[in-house]
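Is this the right way to post structure tokens for a design question? Let me know if I should format differently. Anyway, here goes:
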């Protein structure tokens, strides 16, 4: 069975070795890893992945806008929707090209001096200052951040600690992933906000930090 998830096999092994130094890739339970992946996706009402989509964006009356979903993997068309419902398509390639974009940031623009020949006629198209005045068709991605990776690892750890509590003790780990550092420990007698979080506390915290994908992106799937 293929492993589904936001973490790789190597990342799972590295994480679990902190608790069980003898942990091997053969100890990874595919069903558990995949179930935690599905649990995350149910909670955030979506999945981080690449997909073909039709996106609508508001113009601002200038030559720039940003794709509401990044990265841009491939653009098939960029279209201005006029008030009278007529449409104008941009030319995405070739000598008549009149639009450019940055795949990683999602920035889209209709002119920049180093993008066009010096004899360009100066007719710089602007995106209409109107709700949903631009339609983007292509393949887009949503990239999971370190929090999503950490969340799946925590959920995996919790399952292992339930199945083998004497081997996977979840209250004695300190780890850092990206910018985020955490320590798991038994609750102490200090105020709750000053206590180190147990595994359930960290799972709850991480879920609270990850946006609901359906609400975070305005898109219409093709």
């Amino acid at each position: 069975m293929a492993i589904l998830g936001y973490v790789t096999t190597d990342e799972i092994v590295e994480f679990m070795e902190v608790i069980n130094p003898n942990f091997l890739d053969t100890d990874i339970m595919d069903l558990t890893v995949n179930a935690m992946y599905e649990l995350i996706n149910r909670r955030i009402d979506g999945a981080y992945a690449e997909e073909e989509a039709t996106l609508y964006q508001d113009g601002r009356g200038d030559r720039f806008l940003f794709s509401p979903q990044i990265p841009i993997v491939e653009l098939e068309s960029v279209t201005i929707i006029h008030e009278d419902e007529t449409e104008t398509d941009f030319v995405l390639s070739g000598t008549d090209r009149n639009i450019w974009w940055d795949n990683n940031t999602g920035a889209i623009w209709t002119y920049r001096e180093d993008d066009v020949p010096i004899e360009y006629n100066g007719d710089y198209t602007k995106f209409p200052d109107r709700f949903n005045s631009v339609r983007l068709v292509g393949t887009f991605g949503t990239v999971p951040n370190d929090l999503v990776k950490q969340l799946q690892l925590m959920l995996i750890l919790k399952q292992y600690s339930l199945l083998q509590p004497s081997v996977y003790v979840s209250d004695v780990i300190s780890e850092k992933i990206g910018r985020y550092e955490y320590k798991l420990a038994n609750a102490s007698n200090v105020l709750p906000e000053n206590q180190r979080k147990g595994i359930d506390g960290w799972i709850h915290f991480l879920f609270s930090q990850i946006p609901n994908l359906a609400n975070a992106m305005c898109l219409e799937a093709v």
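Format looks fine. Someone answered above. Worth noting: The chain has a mean pLDDT of 81. The helical segments are 9-17, 30-44, 146-163, 199-209, 213-216.
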